[in-house]
Amino acid sequence: MIGSIVNALAVIGGGIVGLLIHKRLPTYIVDTTFQAIGLFTIVLGITMAIKTTHFLAMVLSLVIGSILGSILHLENMIKSVGEFLKKKTGSKNNRFSEGFITAFLLYCMGSLTILGAIEEGLGLSPTLLFSKSVLDGFSSIALAATMGAGVIFSALPLLLYQGGITLLTSVVQQSLSTLLITELSAVGGVLLVGLGIDILKIKKISVLNMLPSLPIILFIIYIFY
Questions:
Q1: 25 touches 153 (CB < 8 A)
Q2: pLDDT tens digits for range 109-166
Q3: Which domain holds residue 199?
Q4: Which one of 100, 132, 156, 192 is CB 3.0 to 4.6 Å from 150, fit for a cystine?
Q5: CA distance 182 to 177
Q6: Rounded to two decimals, what is the model's pTM?
């Protein structure tokens, strides 16, 4: 799990730098940076989503996952975690929870997260995760500068999620296929598009309630394809 640990540390380090420069940035620069992050997130998501070769499976996983997530109130649960962390740290930033959630989704839905964690789980050198660490470190500077300390705390769920994939891969590596990885990444891409739309405040998208779509697409592809 060394790759995931390095990745989490890069997010923390970048987040600290972002907090240090936050007060020195004019409001218009913060706003423009925020818009750039939103646009980048949409482009990244589209790039990942269009790689799917099983659109019906994608739609089914998104619909079923969204229904399940809504029933479980996942969005409210994760937001509560953000508010708990905000209270414990004494942060006065109104965007603490937003930064925590946005950073978590952005860092965990990308194809590099999945491929890198699987690479390490197969016993290979975590080259992809090291590369991702550099990208996430710089991204966290921009995110923390615009959204605050919540970005730093996203390192914890990142470590759990990414490290979990690595450990799971080491156990079930014989069952993995390129198709499974591609479709999982594609569904993650759709979630990133929703996140980008939400960041730009075009429309409120309950991306957190759609998270069950990820294990569901794995189940659909594994059983039916």
A1: no
A2: 877 888 899 889 888 888 889 989 998 998 899 889 888 899 999 999 999 999 999 9
A3: 2-224
A4: 100
A5: 9
A6: 0.84
